[in-house]
Amino acid sequence: AEDDFWINLKPYPWAVRLLAWLQSKGEVTIASTPSCDPRSHKQKIESLGRHFGLTSDDAMLGKKKYLMANSNHVLIDDFEHNVDEFRAKGGKAILLPSGWNASPATEQDVFRAIDDYFRAGA
Prior knowledge:
The protein is of the alpha/beta class. The protein has 4 helices and 4 strands; from the N terminus they run H-E-H-E-E-H-E-H.
């Protein structure tokens, strides 16, 4: 990987609006699985600051997202395995569309999936 791969990844154009919308519903923690490259940890945190004004206090980096699962937490993820594990540990989860689990995510699809979930009272 190039030295600054993760810091140069661009978020979806609507990601800032999505984060603000989620924060209006409750506390938000960004859970992200870093790659095996140790630079990804540091650069993911830097990217959260650059793009969203977040700090390491707002993030949990690691593969075991299910460790945060409980009946009061909702995981929003685009990887079906993470969603299944989170639910198996007692958490609630929303599977977002993505190129690897359905079709490419669009802003409308993402907001609709989350809104439908909360509207259903899950």
